[in-house]
Amino acid sequence: MSQDGPKCPLDVTPGMVAGLLEVVSLYRGRVDLPMLSKEVGMELGQLLRVLEAAESLGLVKVDDGDVHITQSGIGFSRRLSAGKIKMLSEIVDKVEPFKSIISYVASSGGPVTVEEINNAVKLCESDEERLERLRTYIIDWLVMTGWLEYDGESRAFKLKRKRTRPHAVSSQG
Asked: Is the Cβ–Cβ distance between 104 and 69 less than 8 Å?
C-alpha cells in the first residue's frame, strides 16, 4: 500500500516552522487559528500548510481550531539554531515526503537529479518552476539537516555519509 503524503508543500521551510513554534510558545503553547494567522502575518492557506508540516513533525497538534505545542515542540523551540537542526535531522527521516526522498536517494546508489526524485516520489507536477521549488525544498530540509549532499555543478543529490566513529563505544573487559 502506498502512502500519498503531502503533495508539493514546497513553500514551507524549516524557518517557517520554527517561527510558528516561537509564536505559539508566546501564547503559552496554545492559540486559536485566527489569532495565530494574525500574529504570523500569513494568509490562512499558507498557515495551514506550515501547520501541517509542523504537525507531521510532531511539534504541534491542531484540535478544534486551536494549535497546541507538543512536548517535542517545546523542546524544539527552546533550542538554539544548531540544536533545532539536529532535532529536525532526527525527525525528518520518519516523516513524509522526506522519508520517501531519503529512501529513493539511498536506493539509487549514486547521485540523482530533482527530476529523478520527483518521478520516483511523485511530489508535484514536472514543470520547470515546480521542479526548481522542489530542489530548493530538498536543500532546505534534507541538505540542511545533513541527510543529503547537493552538487551544484551536476545539480544532483546523493546520500550524505553519516559520520560514525566505530570506536566511539568503549568496550572494556
From this structure: no
113-160 confidence digits (pLDDT tens)? 999 999 999 888 888 888 999 999 999 999 999 999 999 999 999 999
Distance CA 155, CA 111 (A): 9
- The DSSP string of 105-125 is HHHH-S-EEHHHHHHHH--S-
Q: Which residue among 78, 106, 129 closes a domain?
A: 78
Closest of 83, 108, 98, 110 to residue 147, by C-alpha: 98
Asked if residue 107 is part of any domain, the answer here is yes
| Structure confidence by residue, pLDDT tens digits, 56-79 | 999 999 999 899 999 999 999 999
Q: Are residues 21 and 72 in the same domain?
A: yes
Domain count, the chain: 2
In which domain, by residue range, is 70 found?
14-78
pTM: 0.83
